[in-house]
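User: Here's a chain of 110 residues. Predict its fold as tokens.
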Amino acid sequence: MEPLFLIVSKSGPALDALGILGLGLTFLAALRLARRDHSAAGAAMAAGAAALLLGRMYFMLAPHLMDRGFLDAAGPVVLALMIGVPPLLVSFGMAGVAWGLWGHERGQRR
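Assistant: Prediction complete.
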């Protein structure tokens, strides 16, 4: 287990980049599905993938873009939004992708 931990801990940015690439490809595939089949399930899947992509990019970039001065100047409302919105994006993104997959599969059975 220790060699696997070392690989994951040392190649974190590379794995993050692959995750972003995978979410982007999922988004593009869902858009293609929505346009080809004119399905609401494909649109829900695309919206979910976009929300996941935005949430993941926020989690990756926030530590690098926000310093102490920015956080002090932001104020309590913006700080609460910065804490609350990314988990909501990820949660609703997962729900959108799952609902889109379920709805598309259900529509294919008819």
